[in-house]
Amino acid sequence: MINVHVYITLKEGVLDPQGQAVQRSxxxxxxxxxxxxxxxxxxxxxIVDGPDVETRVEQMCEQLLANPxxxxxxxxxxxxxxx
Amino acid sequence: xKAAVIVFPGSNCDRDMYHALTDFTDAETVDLVPHTSETVExxxxxxxxxxxxxxxxxxxxxxxxxxxxxQSVIAEAxxxxxxxxxxxxFQILLEADLLPGAMKRNKHLKYMCRTVDVNVENxxxxxxxxxxxxxxxxxxxxxGEGNYECDEATYExxxxxxxxxxxxxxxxxxxxxxxxxxxxxxxxxxxMMPHPERAMEKLLGSxxxxxxxxxxxxxxRDAHAVTT
Lengths: 83, 228
Known about the structure:
Number of helices of chain B: 5
Distance between the termini of chain B: 20 Å
Radius of gyration of chain B: 16 Å
CATH architecture of chain A: 2-Layer Sandwich
Strand order of the largest sheet of chain B: 2-1-3-4-11-10-9-6-7
Radius of gyration of chain A: 17 Å
Number of domains of chain A: 1
Structural class of chain B: alpha/beta
Largest sheet of chain B: 9 strands, mixed
Helix content of chain A: 25-40%
CATH topology of chain B: Rossmann fold
Oligomer: heterodimer
Number of strands of chain B: 11
CATH class of chain B: Alpha Beta
Structural class of chain A: alpha+beta
Order of helices and strands of chain B: EHEEHEHEEEEHEEEH
Number of domains of chain B: 1
Distance between the termini of chain A: 14 Å
Helix content of chain B: 10-25%
Strand content of chain A: 25-35%
Largest sheet of chain A: 3 strands, antiparallel
CATH topology of chain A: Mth169, Chain: A
Number of helices of chain A: 2
CATH class of chain A: Alpha Beta
């Protein structure tokens, strides 16, 4: 099995109302050094290993997991080492 | 006119839409069509109601876009049939790429449920012909993700081609240009966040939604008028 970690964030320049709310709350708690907060999503997929895992993950992101109009995605693959 | 109201798991304005079409237009058939249906080819106009399709998991409308019936909805849209998406229906049209742009959480992160002022920006579509250009309507909104976002080029194209059908009279959710509803380039697909189907009776606050449904009906009637 492969663990795939998909991170979805709003694109640069797209106003992030959730991030702004969190940033204001942090400032209210005294963490005034926090200039910007971005809120995104993390999805963990457990995938059966195969020849074109990366291509298929890419397609999953494009088709469903992210909305490419306003969101960026990155992912990492983590293969479990066989003992 | 044969009208289809598509019912997704989680649709909750489907009955209101059905009521609007059966009681305020002369449509001969109005069917509640399940999301599993293979085709909507037999219908003259298709309505995607508001609600929380598939629980809005992942993103509003993202999963509904892949419901079996949507392939046929997309095909009928391309043929030029009127397709109306209200609220979650609008979000589904965006996810299905029938309309450009995307929805974000409302600017103030609050779910909003109240009646707002809506301007008719384009009274020259098959959905708005019974309105006056520039007319101000009262319509309910009920959404948490109605903050319409698109890139600058798309916004300029929407303006240049008269594709902004409705705007809010004030900034209610942060949408670019106060956009409340847009059409596709051909003008036969309309997505809007305000709920015309909930503005059908004065008793319930407003009857300004009626003319949207009569517009679609008249459009169909005129296209099928017997010319002798």
